[in-house]
Amino acid sequence: MKRNWIYLLAVCLGIGILIGYWQYRENEGQRQSKKNSIRIGVLLYRGDDTFIGTLRAGLEDKAKEYEQKTGIKVKLDILDSKGSQNTQNSQVERLISLGCDALCINSVDRSSASIIIDKAMDAGTPVVFFNREPVEEDMNRWEKLYYVGADAKESAVLQGDALVDAYRKDSRTLDANGNGLVSYVLLEGETSHQDSLIRTEWSIQTLKDGGVPLEKITGGIANWDRSQASALMEQWLKEYPGQIELVVSNNDDMALGAIDAMNRAGIGANSIKVVGIDGTPVGIKALEEGTLFATVESDKERYAQAIFDIAWSLSLDQDPKSVVPLVNGKYYWCPQRVLTQEEAKLLKNK
Ligand code: BGC
């Protein structure tokens, strides 16, 4: 009899604990979803990079839009790491100590992401890396690490396809002197950036696969930068007068630098075709004006939206997978498309 009572008491106690725990979880859930403000830290490898500038503007727009839509206040702290990984590491510490709910990081040196990851893991602050992709091993260290970017091989194949199409329609578009070879120069981004290596390889491979007869005159690293590219192109125009027919550039800013040098030398877009990648506003303007031959546009609105959506849901303790289609649970690849001069004009007149 006594044993039955003890048994009953233990069962009641167990049920009581379970109910208590369930209620605690319920209240906790309500408390979390009732956050009325969140703080998101954003770190940029360089604030003066044109492409990164468009993403920054997109993030600011999204923060305002979500604030209006949901009534949840969004504090965005955006800091420029000015090309220094040490500065960025200290900025990460500062943002964590300010109580950021999530960090969006465009790392300076993608191979040093582990230092940032250590700090974020210690503090329990989730990180959305973007544009400069940490190595897979680093990305797999914690479940609260995400990456948003544009697939580099896809950008390059699209860039190459645009040129193959033009060549097939009229070979003289690229082979201006009609000697049966398209003589090109190549402008490359930072050597440490995954996009430079992959874009270079696949643009040229796509041209070859598409049957465009190629001759490489020369190439150089201009670190995504318009003025560095302009200086290189100025030199090449002097070294190889009348020989360059095509400039293949890893991004729009360097393509624009080459066009600057062509303008200074009085060379028009008819004799040298220039192609870029990004579809930045300045790049699209050059397309409309007819100085840039083609570019590959990444959908910057969706790019910024994906970064923001992931940071937003993590800040509210929600699962990002329910709002953003993630590959392998942590990668979002932004859609891209070729933009030619005709398409840019059509878009403008819409
Ligand atoms: C873009 C470049 C940009 C670089 C910065 C690349 O994906 O195409 O324009 O300068 O990222 O990391």
UniProtKB/TrEMBL annotation:
Xref: InterPro entries: MglB-like_PBP1, Peripla_BP_I, SBP_2_dom
Question: Which superkingdom, per the lineage?
Answer: Bacteria
- Location relative to the cell: Cell envelope
Which keywords does the record carry? Membrane, Metal-binding, Signal, Transmembrane, Transmembrane helix
Segments forming domain Periplasmic binding protein: 40-314
Positions of transmembrane segments: 6-24
Q: Does the keyword Metal-binding apply?
A: yes
Q: Which SUPFAM superfamilies match?
A: Periplasmic binding protein-like I
PANTHER family in UniProt: D-ALLOSE-BINDING PERIPLASMIC PROTEIN-RELATED (PTHR46847:SF1)
Q: How does it assemble?
A: The ABC transporter complex is composed of one ATP-binding protein (MglA), two transmembrane proteins (MglC) and a solute-binding protein (MglB).
The entry sums up its family as follows: Belongs to the bacterial solute-binding protein 2 family.
* Name this protein carries in UniProt: D-galactose/methyl-galactoside binding periplasmic protein MglB
Q: To which species is this protein native?
A: Enterocloster hominis
